[in-house]
Amino acid sequence: xxxxxxxxxxxxxxxxxxxxxxxxxxxxxxxxxxxxxxxxxxxxxxxxxxxxxxxxxxxxxxxxxxxxxxxxxxxxxxxxxxxxxxxxxxxxxxxxxxxxxxxxxxxxxxxxxxxxxxxxx
Length: 121
Ligand SMILES: CC(C)(COP(=O)(O)OP(=O)(O)OC[C@H]1O[C@@H](n2cnc3c(N)ncnc32)[C@H](O)[C@@H]1OP(=O)(O)O)[C@@H](O)C(=O)NCCC(=O)NCCS
Known about the structure:
3-stranded antiparallel sheet, globular, alpha+beta, 7 strands, binds coenzyme A
């Protein structure tokens, strides 16, 4: 099922066929919404990973903005976050372009991360 379309991207659930990089559309990455509990608070992360060959074309930003707008307009969410490794400047920039700002440094069982967040206007 297609979830979202942007100018250059089709966002939908992964299927086993995606492993074959089918001719109907090249598989370039994964993105979506992930639920977390951070410091006792329920949060929803906008997560994104783009294959290296496609970096620097604005694709993560394009996907992230579409997901943000869908989450706020269609899912009724009022706040979104990103969990970013310290030093991952590209990821932090994508978060900022979603309107997010750095909130605090956190740590979970996997390790430390920076919490960025945005509230629906
Ligand atoms: C982070 C990631 C998704 C960015 O994907 P992308 O499609 O290249 O991102 P975009 O092109 O939409 O935008 C990247 C922004 O970061 C900036 N950027 C890239 N590398 C940078 C660096 N080393 N320092 C500062 N800014 C940087 C770009 O200039 C761009 O900002 P701009 O449009 O204002 O110029 C990609 O690098 C990736 O998949 N990394 C590995 C997985 C990962 O880290 N995911 C995020 C986990 S929180």
